[in-house]
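USER:
Class, as today's exercise, take the chain set out below, and explain how the chain folds.
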Amino acid sequence: MKSSKVNTTGFTIVELLIVIVVIGIVAAISIIAYSGIQQRAQDAKIRAVASQFTKAFQRWSVDSGKTTDAGGSGSTAYTDGVCVGGGGGWTSRTVGYICTIDNILVDAGYIPANLVLSVPALQESRPGSYSTLMLYRCSSPSPPTQYAMMYHLNTPDPEEMTRLRNACAGGGTFGPIDTYGMNGGYIFSITR
């Protein structure tokens, strides 16, 4: 009698399906992890630009002996390195004000012209927001003058927001957060 041999080389359909499912799961995990890493990288870039901007503002204020007005608005006039008639708190040339604090710092040579514009745009929309960064002078009757540097993040930090509210608004309503949607930031002082 002749024995018949069955050729058993190759993979079964079940084995192939298992491999495809495993590859799909690994790909899904990678995409989710990459998205989170990308958002954290954007937040780190925003914080780094805010820090650079803050240091430049402190140097300018000490060197010039000037500060911005209390509040965070831009201005309609720019004279002798000062925003006349407004706070100059917006830090983007794209918000429609003639004078923002970055106009002053760029013109005085403290920051490059594209620094604020290098901040990555966030993927989610921010209704009611006008800028990625905002400098706000907190009302303080005596030195040192306190400022809030605020920004929009992909992943907000509630503790930062509490510190900002407590320092600039006594824990109550704070326009840059409540009106303009800022969701990260820190307080710094200028002492002369």
Notes: The radius of gyration is 26 Å.
